[in-house]
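Ticket #4471: structure export looks truncated?
Reporter: QA, pipeline team
Priority: medium

Steps to reproduce: submit the single chain below to the structure queue and open the exported record.
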Amino acid sequence: MSEDVVIHIVDDEEPVRKSLAFLLTMSGHAARVHESATAFLGVAAGLRNACLITDLRMPDMSGVELLRRLNEAGHMLPAIVITGHGDVPMAVEAMKAGALDFIEKPFSESVLLEAIARAVAQLDKQPREGTSAADIRRRLEQLSERERQVMSRIVAGLPNKTIAYELDISPRTVEVHRANVMMKMQAKNLPELVRMVLTTEDDLL
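Actual output as written to the record:
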């Protein structure tokens, strides 16, 4: 099935659509482009064996709203959201709405292709290495109270300087706590940490 998957790109900027389509085509993927979320919704009902890459901020409809509309209509696809650095809270909302992953700009080709591989694997319903909620809770238990405070603010999208101000510690101390959080949670990057937090959201309240 993987060879026949079509990756649909939704972005209001033509250069972005073209560059992403070129990258995917050169990597062996079939790609289709859509200039708006509204345009994509018009064809979503008839799609089979497809994945979605959508920008978060678009003039006609946000990526979050697009995912919500797809969910409501029963047409949800494995979705990757592309987001700016300051849009992490919105990206978290996108994941709550069903996005599989989010990628912060600027991103490398390898990061995007790895996310697509995960999306295609989900579409194929292949067994994937995952982390159970119990495993994540055990990792959470290893965090100190301060590390939990830092982690909740990282996931909320706050920069280190703001976290330092709120917790009355130095930015360098925030960096140390941040590194410890990533290590103890065994998270490779921010999107992976967010997924873990969403899995055990009640534990962070």
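Status: closed, not a bug. The export was complete when the record was re-opened. Leaving a note from the reviewer for reference: The first helix runs from residue 14 to 26.
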